[in-house]
Description:
The chain has helices at about 1-20, 45-60, 65-70, 75-95, 100-115, 120-130, 135-150, 160-175, 200-210; strands spanning about 35, 40-45, 180, 185-190, 195. With about 220 residues, the protein is mainly alpha-helical.
Amino acid sequence: xxxxxxxxxxxxxxxxxxxxxxxxxxxxxxxxxxxxxxxxxxxxxxxxxxxxxxxxxxxxxxxxxxxxxxxxxxxxxxxxxxxxxxxxxxxxxxxxxxxxxxxxxxxxxxxxxxxxxxxxxxxxxxxxxxxxxxxxxxxxxxxxxxxxxxxxxxxxxxxxxxxxxxxxxxxxxxxxxxxxxxxxxxxxxxxxxxxxxxxxxxxxxxxxxxxxxxxxxxxxx
Length: 221
């Protein structure tokens, strides 16, 4: 179980690092929402609060400058995290499994022991996953739930098993009809990815700027 949970954690961390950042802003369909997942809003204010918590924790770290410098994508990374939380929950619900508070506490205690204590565990989550101390339980809950989902659908810790889990996530993602504020990008159900969104007029402006060299500089210089 621990091996499966660590695998899920590392995959999640890698995806989080890959998600680029764009500023938050409400759209016409859902003003004030960063995304709507399964009919539930993820408000921009809630997202900004999560980002603020992480920044506050980073500022008190001995590696403050390094942590802040390597997490410029934090806004979209946190949105990705919040979306995936709901996808994992939906997939687990569909598989008829869940997680208890006791299981979360046990998993956290085990992780703290392996990390060398609660403080080191918090530092690891902050450094590797951009997760503030008060967000750790939610992250652990998701990791444990991924492991229980895998067990419920008979997916072993193999490439085939991972494909089976991914298929459950894709099905859950599609069922939730995820609608992301264009300022953050668009959600790709198949890739489980928060990709870049470029409106036609933005694309046109970008092309025009790329075609024109900076003032005083010759093309190709």
